[in-house]
UniProtKB/TrEMBL annotation:
Record's compositionally biased regions (Basic and acidic residues): 18-41
Cellular localisation: Membrane
EC numbers on record: 2.7.7.41
Gene name linked to the record: cds2
Similarity remark: Belongs to the CDS family.
InterPro entries with a match to the protein in the record: PC_trans, PC_Trfase_euk
Name used for this protein in its record: Phosphatidate cytidylyltransferase
A GO cellular-component term linked to this record: endoplasmic reticulum membrane
Function of the molecule: Catalyzes the conversion of phosphatidic acid (PA) to CDP-diacylglycerol (CDP-DAG), an essential intermediate in the synthesis of phosphatidylglycerol, cardiolipin and phosphatidylinositol.
Organism listed in the record: Gymnodraco acuticeps
Length: 450
């Protein structure tokens, strides 16, 4: 979020009104594209406080004899293993815990980004900035998750009168909440800081777009089956680890200026490692109903259940290998789950396009001369530093499912029909019966009577 540059001499400078003259200082805040070597006075931005090193003291003592390079390697490795272990634990605890973790990560990422904005511009004492930011977060979450609740817990919502009313007028309530925040922002505008306040208004909304929307996609992917949640996230984690390992030991060729430590060796090594990992993980998980069945709410037990007859996507099938692979392997056919083929697309995206989420975050951090979003995880930075690629992956998975996997859902159609009036249900029944009789799938009424 940068302030506007002064126009060049060739651009005419318009006369300002008296109330806008005070914003001259805002125009001098930052020249976009300032290099890392520029001083604070050149960029005009207030310095964002560098996060303190919060590496556990026991690790500092144990690794005190190592160089900083190897010390960082061990710290990252140990904390990575701890996070992977925690990931296994929440998978074991089930879908509800996974959803709660996604919501927690969303809130923490939002807090880290908003804190950076506040740290840069807090000297202007903008009223209500953080209050309005959190209020808009509440409004957007109410809108998205209200839609999800109505869609996934339709029977429960229709059974309870208050929930039914909230569901019926959900979008109107959501709009009214947002409109309240909008009016609060307009009333908070301060003379001499109009431009800056609109910058921060945009800052909040872009943050909401990046964080809340993507976390909503993650929840939707989870309802399709935990495999659609676990495999993409695991592929991103694998790519991050393997790209780091290959880059650490073999990296020589810089990949992109935004991230000087990223190398082509790490990028290519991470690509092939992730594809192999994705195929293997998909093979293991496709055999378990707990992972492949959609997450559904059981209205009788008032609990989530994960049980179904696996679709063809998760049933072993024989595939004929191309001739060049037959001569190389000696196999004519191979037995795979169809989902393993889809996993190649998921792992390829995680390796090729996923890192661009990290590059985007790197550019953001360089713009504000910070190393990490926060210091929540020693050796790794903030939560946003670990999930910058995950959000981009979540959008791809959601689009991929909608485009190539998901078909019409009969149970949801029936739910919608049961919510109609009796005369509407009879009209649909008669229309459907006439259509099926016309197609020859049902005998004519005269034949039945005879």
């Amino acid at each position: 979020m940068t302030e506007l540059r002064h126009r060049g001499a060739e651009a005419p400078i318009q006369t300002q009104s008296s109330e806008d003259k005070g914003s001259d200082s805002e125009l001098r805040l930052e020249k976009d594209g300032a290099s890392d070597g520029e001083s604070k006075g050149d960029s005009g931005l207030a310095e964002v406080p560098a996060p303190a090193d919060d590496t556990p003291e026991v690790l500092n003592k144990a690794l005190s004899g190592l160089s900083s390079r190897w010390r960082n390697w061990w710290v990252r490795g140990i904390l990575t293993l701890a996070m992977i272990s925690f990931f296994f634990l929440i998978i074991y605890l089930g879908p509800i815990v996974l959803m709660m973790i996604v919501l927690f990560v969303q809130i923490k990422c939002f807090q880290e980004i908003i804190t950076i904005g506040y740290s840069v511009y807090h000297s202007y004492h903008l009223p209500w900035f953080r209050t309005l930011s959190w209020y808009f977060l509440l409004c957007v979450n109410y809108f998205f998750y209200g839609e999800t609740v109505t869609d996934c817990f339709f029977t429960l919502v229709q059974r309870e009168e208050p929930l039914r009313i909230l569901s019926k007028y959900h979008r109107f309530i959501s709009f009214a909440l947002y409109l309240t925040g909008f009016c609060m922002f307009v009333l908070s505008l301060v003379k001499k800081h109009y431009r800056l306040q609109f910058y921060m208004f945009g800052w909040t909304h872009v943050t909401l777009l990046i964080v809340v929307t993507q976390s909503h996609f993650i929840i939707h992917n989870l309802f399709e089956g935990m495999i659609w949640f676990i495999v993409p996230i695991s592929c991103v984690i694998c790519n991050d680890i393997m790209a780091y390992m290959f880059g650490f030991f073999f990296g020589r060729t810089p990949l992109i200026k935004l991230s000087p430590k990223k190398t082509w060796e790490g990028f290519i090594g991470g690509l092939f490692s992730t594809i192999v990992f994705g195929i293997m993980l998909s093979y293991v998980m496709s055999g378990w109903r707990y992972f492949v069945c959609p997450v559904e709410f059981n209205n009788d037990s008032n609990r989530f259940q994960v049980d179904c007859e696996p679709s063809e996507l998760f049933q072993l099938q024989d595939y004929t290998l191309p001739s060049f692979l037959v001569s190389f392997t000696g196999w004519t056919t191979v037995r795979l789950y169809p989902f393993q083929i889809h996993s190649i697309a998921l792992s390829s995206f995680a390796s090729i396009m996923g890192p661009f989420g990290g590059f985007f975050a790197s550019g953001f951090k360089r713009a504000f001369k910070i190393k990490d979003f926060a210091n929540t995880i020693p050796g790794h930075g903030g939560i946003m530093d670990r999930f910058d690629c995950q959000y981009l992956m979540a959008t791809f998975v959601n689009v991929y499912i909608a485009s190539f996997i998901r078909g019409p859902n009969p149970s949801k159609v029936i739910q919608q029909l049961l919510a109609l009036r009796i005369d509407q249900q009879l009209h649909i029944f008669n229309s459907l019966k006439a259509h099926l009789m016309e197609k020859g799938f049902l005998p004519a009424l005269e034949d039945v009577m005879a």
